[in-house]
Design brief:
Blueprint lengths: L1 H24 L8 H13 L3 E4 L8 E6 L6 E6 L13 H22 L2 E6 L9 H6 L8 E3 L2 E3 L2 E2 L6 E10 L15 H15 L8 E8 L10 E10 L2 H22 L2 E6 L11 H13 L7 E2 L9 H4 L5 E2 L2 E3 L10 H6 L3 H22 L2 H17 L1
Parallel strand pairs: 3-4, 3-5, 5-13, 6-14, 7-12
Antiparallel strand pairs: 1-2, 2-4, 8-10, 8-11, 9-10
Length: 390
């Protein structure tokens, strides 16, 4: 049956690679991925998936379903297809979406015999307001037995960890005045932002090494001779756990409040993007994926230990069902994600071929779990242990 899965993916490889190339050549930002969304839905429907559009009223979100009509597990493949501002597909999401859809189409070739349900979740805006967050909160993964996706990279890497994240905006409101004639009549909102940055920098010494705090000033005044009456800073606050990220975010808020108090400004805070939870890799499920890699000639010594690469909205999914997020080698050169070099190399044939291998490995992993009830029980038992520990 695995040979049938692989042969099915091979047969459809030209169209899968053409779709990936089309999405790569037409990058769209999060929640604006109308071209990509339409093309992916078209492909799923062509393979007899029933597609629900605009899930949770998110215009570019979808769920494609193929139900065998026989009892069996429900597997979720996660598709991402948003691009980065200015850079385009420098994170390889044009490959990710077709890894998952290719895997779903491959698995469909045997699912009528094995039993079970295949779902493809079209999840926009992973880079910002990732749709997996409201999907998970709405319980759309609660009846999923396990969830799979893979990410392109310059090496093979086991599914590992990610950082929990809060995206916090601080708005300071002061009072404008002529900076030369009557500065004493003003209340300087920009001073408050600068004090916030200095306070955060002082805070860093008392934080764990896994913490990342980084921010920018998005509003800082209109002219040098006017005391700024409005200034805005946006920060990402991250750590390896949701619990500690909450603690750090509360300390950063105290820094912001102190800056308002010192300058006489008023302060408003908000979350300008969704909060992401940390990824909890299901190690039993991850081992199944790695065994399939080994069968494909990717030996253990070629697969690096999983690392964190920032934050993923998949972390929120991993709180609701067993989940993995391995990295697949699609380029030969050592270039990091979110760079022009990775973007350009991820459009070449080597990357498209790596995408197809990833689709096969995802489908093979799903097949192994679907056809082995004892293995699925072990995966679920690990998930429950991890959830209880949290």
């Amino acid at each position: 049956m695995k040979e049938r899965i692989y042969n099915t993916i091979d047969f459809h490889t030209p169209e899968f690679q053409a779709i990936s190339t089309y999405i790569g050549q037409n990058p769209e930002l999060g929640h604006e991925e109308f071209l990509a969304c339409a093309r992916l839905i078209e492909e799923l429907e062509r393979h007899d998936f029933t597609v629900e559009r605009a899930v949770l009223d998110i215009p570019t979100a979808f769920i494609g379903v193929y139900d065998s009509g026989k009892p069996g597990p429900t597997v979720a493949f996660l598709a991402e297809y948003d691009a980065l501002p200015e850079l385009g597909h420098a994170c390889g999401h044009h490959l990710i979406c077709m890894m998952s859809i290719g895997a779903a189409v491959g698995l469909k070739s045997v699912i009528d015999e094995t039993g079970g349900v295949i779902r493809v979740y079209g999840t926009p805006a992973e880079e910002t307001k990732g749709a997996k967050v409201p999907m998970a909160a709405a319980g759309l993964f609660d009846d999923v037995d396990f969830a799979l996706m893979a990410h392109p990279y310059y090496t093979y890497e086991r599914s590992g960890e990610s950082l929990a994240l809060d995206a916090i905006q601080f708005e300071y409101f002061g009072k404008a005045a002529h900076a030369a004639a009557s500065p004493y009549e003003g209340v300087n909102a920009l001073d408050a932002v600068l004090m916030l940055f200095n306070s955060v920098n002082a805070l860093r010494q008392q934080l764990r090494s896994d913490v990342r705090i980084h921010g920018i000033i998005t509003e800082g005044g209109q002219a040098a001779n006017i005391i700024p009456d409005y200034a805005v800073a946006q920060f990402y606050v991250r750590s390896s756990s949701r619990a500690y990220t909450n603690e750090v975010a509360a300390k950063v808020l105290k820094c912001a409040e102190g800056a308002a108090l010192q300058t006489g400004c008023t302060l408003t805070t908000s979350n300008y993007e969704y909060s992401y939870d940390e990824l909890n890799t299901n190690e039993t499920l991850s081992a199944v994926f790695n065994r399939n890699l080994s069968s494909a000639g990717i030996t253990e010594d070629m697969i690096q230990t999983g690392k964190d690469h920032g934050s993923l909205d998949l972390g929120n999914v991993s709180l609701h069902c067993p989940t993995i997020h391995p990295y697949m080698k699609v380029i030969e050169e050592k270039h990091l994600l979110h760079t022009p070099e990775f973007r350009d190399l991820a459009m070449k044939q080597r990357a498209l071929d790596g995408m197809i291998l990833a689709a096969k490995m995802l489908a093979a992993t799903a097949y192994d779990v679907i056809t082995d009830p004892a293995l699925l029980a072990e995966i679920k038992a690990e998930f429950e242990r991890t959830r209880s520990a949290r």
